[in-house]
Structure formats: C-alpha cells, structure tokens
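May I ask for a sample protein chain and its fold as tokens?
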Amino acid sequence: MEPILFDNPDFIYAADIHIRSNIPKCRIDEFLETQEYKLYFLFKQSEKYNCPIIIGGDLGHKPEWKNWLLSVFIQLCKKHDQPIYVIPGQHDLPFHNIQQWKQSALGVLHFTKKIIVLIHKPVIIKDIQIIPCCYGQKIPGYISTNFGIGIKRHILVTHRMVINKPLWPGQLAQTGIDLLHKYPSYNAILSGDNHQSFIFRDDNRILVNAGSFMRTTTEQINHKPKIYLYYSKQNTISPVYLPIENNVINTEHILENNDREKRIQSYINYIDNLKNKKKYSVVLSFKRNIENYLNKSKHEKAVKKLVRKHTQ
C-alpha cells in the first residue's frame, strides 16, 4: 500500500527495531546486511519527507551493543540530518531499569547526539506535543499545556503490551480500543512492544502499534514490517512497507525440534506403559531401567554380565 500523501507527514513512526549483532536462528540470508539496509531505508524516508523519526522503544535488542554495531549505526546517522527521537523499551535498559538508561547503548547514542532519548519531558514537533511513556512508566492522564500556545495535537508514545487480540489463552493486556477509551486526552497513541502491527480508531482518534521492524522468528514468516507516516492535520497515518525478500526464513530447525519432542514423548509413553505392568521399577534413567530389569530377569549370569559391560 502506497502512502496517502495529504501533504508532507509531520513525522515517521516505527518501533521494536531490535538492532542486534547476532543472527536469528531462522534467518538464512545475510541478516546483518539486511538489517543495515532496512535502517538505511528508514532514514531515506525521513529525508524524502523532510521529517523526524519517532521510535516507540526497543531500538536495540540488548542494552549494550558491540562497538562495531554502534559504529555502523553512527555512520548511518552521520548521513542523516533529521532528528531521531527514541523512548526506551525494556530491551534497551540494563536490568529493565529506566534509572540505568545512561549506562546503555541508548545513553551513548544520546550523549553523542545521534539520537534524542525521551524519558519524562515532552517534546514539541511543529504544533504537536509528544508525550513519552517509557517501559515501566505510568501513562500520564493529565496533559500539561505549558509548552506554548498553538499546540493542536497531543500524542502519547508508549512502550507497553497493547494487543489486538490475546497472543495466548488467558493473556491479560489492554487492547488498543481500551487504551483509547481510558486516555481520551490524547489525539493519537503510538505503542510498541507487541511485535504485531495493527491500528485502532475511535471516532477521530487513533492508536497505532507499529510491530517489529525485522522478521526474527519463524512465526513472522508472513509478517510485513512497516513504518508509519503521521499527518497531524487529518490526525491519521499511512503505512510504508519495508522491502523484504522471500525465502529468507528457514523452518527446518522447528521441524527438527518437533521431531525430537515426539521421540522424547514416545519414550515417556513407553516408560509409563512399563510402569503400568508393574513387573519392575521403571524410571527415566536408561541405565537404572536396565539394571532393574536384569535384577528381575531369569537370564544367565554371563548374559547379564555382558549387558552390564556394554551399558555402563
């Protein structure tokens, strides 16, 4: 889907970038090169529309980045002249502790002025007030108006689990519409953490969950990563799909794990059946089962000795 261009967007929204130095088990392409190209694509969109980038948490996969990975990101930033605003997610924070953000890769990038980390203080973009709510923080119900006259939009950017539908049976989490109803002061809510992409609308208000920037698990084989252009005048968004390649996610290791689990379950079932016969004590130790069997069996001593020799 091509972006709907009412006019130039006010900013680009993305989340759950999870920049990493290791290659996910499922990827069979040149993953690190692909990751760098996706970041380059994001930055080029920002330059194309002459607008900043807002990242809703988990810029990195881990709080600490390897030096070469920091260098790659910094080099990309040097060619990019638009601001990059980031709220920390739990993957960005040492021990998931917001108080330690300065000791993380985000802290390094912030102090080298390659990104702007938003913790508590809102930031103004044109006539939009961006209110950050990092991982573990409580969403402010009251919106301060001390940031100048002429503010037309109040937008919450938060990193917390917001769902479209439960990800597993019994999951307790707020849906997008729940959040919109609970915090009516915000014209738009931009969320991160859930790696699925979805949008909720409530009259003229909107919630956008960006979803993950890269496909890193076999479950994401059909996921279509995207970023979003935000238009303040219409208070709406338009997705821009990231370029992806087919046949770069391998599922063989899942099949191998399933086969291994079936073999283990077959052995457990076999042991249970032996237990039910009550001929001799059966446990999950192969050697002990052999010994228990030999002690009860009527085989000749020479046979038992040979079996014990080859099972010790």
